[in-house]
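FAQ: What does the model actually see?

It sees only this:
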Amino acid sequence: MQRADKKKTAAGTAAPEKALKDIMARLRQQGASAVKTINISDIVVDERVRLKCQIPVCDSYNKNLMCPPHVPSVAVFREALAGYAGAILLQITAPLPEAAADRPSIDVYAPAKKLHELVNLAEKWAFEYNFRFATGLMGGCCRLCDECVAIQGGHFCRYPFKARPSMEAMGIDVVETVKAAGLPISFPIVNEVTWTGIVLI
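And it is asked to produce this:
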């Protein structure tokens, strides 16, 4: 116990730059294909992103507790975002599985669960380094459950400490934010899929 307490104290008193480098190194070790710190001003927030949740209506709209209208508004998020200094962008890139003749649709969502795991870990590590307001956001909607309780009108998440809203739900223009950071992102998806998450610091 004493040894664990010393380790926690050491982590909590590390310089911010050293702490971020450690978190980024650990994310790479855990499978992140790209990790980069950005200034909070580099995060592009655009109300039109949130608008696209409803026009045309997304299949997760009002059917996922981590998506609109269950999450804070873009205005609330924009105000909260101003209190942060920076963020860690992280990505998972994976080759697309070959489409079988009897299954032309391609599962581009398979790597999303790994991204979710890494975002949660990064948030946890940041908190241990005394970034007490560290907040993780996903790329795309939460996929922890095959079917969210919201579909049946439920209001209580099965995994409240693991589930995180999507970047898009908060109004973040993921494409422009990632481009500005110099990280890869491309549409349409052809040979590989890249999922992006973020941890506000």
